[in-house]
Amino acid sequence: MSEIWRVLKPNGQTFFATPAYPHPESFQDPQHVNTITENTILYFSTINQHYLELGQAYGFKGQFEVIQQAWADKPYEIREGSSYNVLLFILFGIYA
After folding, report:
1. Which residue of 11, 29, 84, 92 could cross-link 19, Cys pair, CB 3.0 to 4.6 Å?
2. 37-67 in b/e burial notation, b at 16+ Cβ within 10 A?
3. What burial letters (b/e) apply to 10-26, b meaning 16+ CB within 10 Å?
């Protein structure tokens, strides 16, 4: 999330999809070093100030407004032959 924040233009929006708990795909790929849940975004967004402060205590320097968060309607094909159940996010960067 810090890298998204770093490269996002001021007042920019970002869209991303990620395998998330409880689906096994969130644990399957060894490149997924952090398990994402529906509540992970709380540490990076203005939804809950307490969690945002915890995220910042862990080193995150930005803050996002969540425009949309939802489970994909169907498995998302990351590459041919690999489909994952994913959470979709649309975030807006808030720059002071």
Report:
1. 84
2. eeebbbbbbeeeeebbeebeeeebebbbeee
3. eeeebeeebbbeeeebb
Tokens matching residue 15: 């869209």
The neighbour count for residue 86, using CB atoms within 10 Å, is 22
Mean local confidence (pLDDT), 60-66 = 92
| DSSP designation for 50 | H
Q: Which two tokens stand for residue 51?
A: 């969690």
Contact by Cβ (8 Å): 18, 40: no
Q: Rounded to a whole number, what is the distance in angstroms from the first to the last CA of the chain?
A: 18
Nearest to 19 by CA among 67, 80, 76: 76
Least confident among 53-57, 65-69, 76-80:
76-80
